[in-house]
Structure formats: C-alpha cells, structure tokens
Amino acid sequence: ITMNNVSVITMFFLSGFNETVSHRFVLFFLSLLCYCIICLVNVSLIVTIILDTNLHEPMYILLCVFCMNALYGTAGFFPRFLWDLLSDVRLISYYGCLIQTQVVYSFACGELSILALMAYDRYVAICQPLKYHSIMSKQRVIRFACFSWFTTFCIVAVNTFLTSRLKLCSPYISRLFCVNWSIVQLACFPAQTTINAIVANITISIYFLHGVFIVWSYMYIIQTCVKSIENRAKFMQTCVPHLVSLFTFVVAILLDIINMRLGSKELPRTLQNFAAIEFLVIPPIMNPLMYGFKLNKIRKRIYSVVISKTK
Fold it and tell me: For 81, what's the count of Cα atoms within 13 Å in the CB-facing half-sphere?
C-alpha cells in the first residue's frame, strides 16, 4: 500500500536473528530453560511473600512487586523470542512490535522506579527508624508502587504513541526484538523524529534522576551505618542485595543503550545480541535468587517449605 509515495509498514522483519540460524535449536532449549527458571524463582518468591503474613512488610511487598515486574517484562520478550527461534521467517506485526516495545520499556523503567522505592524504604528504616511505621505503612507502600508503575507505563506510552505516528521506509529491524529507537531509525523523514528524540531524552533524564535519588539515599544510609554496628548488620543484610540489583541492572541497560545509540557495525552480531537481551535475562534470574538467599525471613520460610515437602 502506498500513501504519499511512502509504504505503509504492516510487518517487521527481525534481522537480528540472521546469525542464530545454525545454532537455533540449542539457543531455543537454553532460552526455554532460562525462561522456566525465571518463572520458577520469581513465582516462588511472590507466592512465599503473599502466603506468609509475617512477610507482609513494606520491604517484602516491594520485593513482591519487583518480581511481578520481572515476570511482566520477560513475558513481553521470551514467548515471542522462542517462537522466532523455531520459525524460518522472523516476522512480527506492526502493532505487535509496538506492544512489545511498550512492555519491554515499561519493564525497564519500572525496574528503576521500584529500586528507587526500595532505596527510600531502606533510607527511612535505617536513617529515621522511629518514623518508619508511620511513613512506610503497608497501604502507603502499595499506593506508592501502583503509582510509580502506572506513571512509568504512561511515560513509556507517550514514547510509543509518538513512534506510531512516524511514516517508515523500511520493515527491517536489526534486533532480536522490537525497541522504540530501532523503529524511530526507520523513519522516512528524519525531521519528524525530532519530537521523539526530545521526549526520549526527557524520559532518560527522569529515570537518570531516579538513579541519582538511589545513590543519594545510599550515601545517607552508609553515613548512618558507619556509626552503628546494628545498622551495619542491617545494611549488609537488606541493602547490599538492592545495590547489587541496581548495579547489574544499570550495567545491562547501559550496555544496551551504548550498543543501540553508538553501536559499531564492526562488533560481532552475537555480542550485539547478548548486549541487547542481557537486561531481560540476568536481573530477572539473579534478583529473586539473591534476595531469597540473603534475606533471613524469606530464606527460613523457603527452607521450612522445602523440608516439610521432603518429609
């Protein structure tokens, strides 16, 4: 179909798969195993927290939301990715591509929002312990979590909507999955993408400020912990997992952004593909395992369930 001499794109070809053809069955089974592990560890932690009333505390509620966000984000990537690995032609519909973009981006930004809430929770718990229960009530934490996720979804939706307005000149996306910037780069008229770039930079700035807030919170927490042995123990048990989560997530996202915005064509496609999907693979597996083993209450609860099942 043509409109003003511009083709209306109804399908996209995901050309990032071209290097995987010879190993696709091995990759399929490894990816399926990886997705099963992600579902198992995240669902286990969610169910443990929901069923145990002793874990109905702000920190564990936020951890539950964190795992739910991981399931949401990976559901936007893995089923489609597994299907494409078995297909001979990697096609995705235009609207399917926009939906995948919305899910993957809102997952990534939502992850940072939840980490910011976790940092604030630990800041109040360690720096203002007497005010903790009045500031961080269960109802307020749930409202904070819902508000931050809804806001994130809307911010990403604005980016996705602006992308949907562009006239595109090519159906080829050189990625394993759809992302906003890859679609914007296909625009026929670069002048039309100015507003996309502005809104994308505003979005990046908003979530960069989330990162600044997290660093600021932990600076205060560390300052407080230095003065007290009790607070040092609390920091090692509850804050270190947050910092490791933040570090792995930020490194994974930065790798993808650098690859996407400044990506060299000389880099091997396999390396580019790994950089692109790392944030959808490593944090969703690592985070629940790390929290499950590091946080005493969750570890004891899981042990008690496992022991009762084996008897």
Answer: 28
Q: What are phi and psi of 215, to 5 degrees?
A: -60, -45
The residues pairing with 187 across neighbouring beta strands, listed in sequence order, are: 168
Residue 183 near residue 175, CB atoms below 8 Å: no
Check pLDDT > 70 for residue 58: yes
* 191 burial level (CB within 10 Å; 0-12, 13-18, 19+): exposed
Q: Is the pLDDT of residue 5 over 50?
A: no
Q: How far is CA 28 from each of CA 82, 101, 143, 271, rounded to the nearest angstrom?
A: 6, 22, 39, 18
DSSP string over 194-224: HHHHHHHHHHHHHHHHHHHHHHHHHHHHHHH
The torsion defined by the Cα of 272, 273, 278 and 284, in degrees rounded to 10, comes to: 170
pLDDT tens for each residue of 148-175: 999 999 999 999 999 998 888 888 888 8
Length of the chain: 311
Question: Which amino acid, residue 232?
Answer: R
Q: Is 166 helix (H, G, I), strand (E, B) or coil?
A: coil
- In the predicted structure, residue 102 carries a pLDDT above the cut 90: yes
Determine the pLDDT at residue 220: 85
| CA distance linking residue 104 with residue 91, whole number of Å | 18
